[in-house]
Q: What sequence folds into this?
């Protein structure tokens, strides 16, 4: 299955600043997915990133707050902009495995704390 | 109604017992169903996938799917303390939607 390298693994940021999270996949994938996991909660899909087109955002998430780049088929970034303490969460990227039945693979996550 | 709903936890079972985790979903067009295990501080890891009605067994794990009832379950036989984790049900129609998770605790 695909291997995803995600960084940073954690960060503590000041409110009002921005953080960019990177995900590198060891194979070419059409779509990459960004999720948020708030403390004690399950995973919520933020957006789907396709190479060569704008990301598709889920209800409640907007591009100005979570801009996404997808410059090629192995890499994507998610920026959390103008952060507030409510943005403190774990952010995960994910890809659908090319092998049927292998489901979705996740990066190791970025634990963000906004102070 | 939530799109994917799991039985609320935490669920506590003694070592060696069967743990039963349940999940219902609202989208009848859903095609793929997954169970993920998430240890505290770690990212989710896939333990089972199921696509057609019936049972699918893999070692100590059995997934059961009933599309007519919009129900998917996971049985863990001979539960071990190392099985203690949060189990996430995920359902894919167009996108992958997660349930809220059930925390399982296996007591030695």
A:
């Amino acid at each position: 299955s695909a291997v995803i390298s995600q960084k940073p693994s954690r960060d503590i940021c000041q409110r009002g600043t921005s953080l960019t999270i990177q995900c590198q996949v060891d194979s070419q994938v059409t779509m990459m997915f960004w999720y948020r996991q708030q403390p004690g909660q399950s995973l919520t899909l933020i957006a789907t990133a396709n190479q060569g087109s704008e990301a598709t955002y889920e209800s409640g998430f907007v591009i100005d707050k979570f801009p996404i780049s997808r410059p090629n088929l192995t890499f994507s970034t998610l920026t959390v902009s103008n952060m507030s303490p409510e943005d403190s969460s774990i952010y995960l990227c994910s890809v659908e495995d090319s092998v049927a039945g292998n489901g979705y693979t996740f990066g190791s996550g970025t634990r963000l704390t906004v102070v | 109604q939530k799109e994917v709903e799991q039985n609320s936890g935490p669920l506590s079972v003694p070592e060696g017992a069967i743990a039963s985790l349940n999940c219902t979903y609202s989208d009848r067009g859903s095609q793929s169903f997954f169970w993920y295990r998430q240890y505290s501080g770690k990212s989710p890891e896939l333990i089972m996938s199921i696509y057609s009605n019936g049972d699918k067994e893999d070692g100590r794990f059995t997934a059961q799917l009933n599309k007519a009832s919009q129900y998917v379950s996971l049985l863990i036989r001979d539960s071990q303390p190392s099985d203690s984790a949060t189990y996430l049900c995920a359902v894919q129609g167009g996108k992958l939607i997660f349930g809220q998770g059930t925390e399982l605790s296996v007591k030695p």
Remarks:
- Chain A is about 0% helix and 50% strand.
- The first strand of chain A starts at residue 4 and ends at 7.
- Chain A touches chain B through 19 residues (CB under 8 Å).
- The mean pLDDT of chain A is 93.
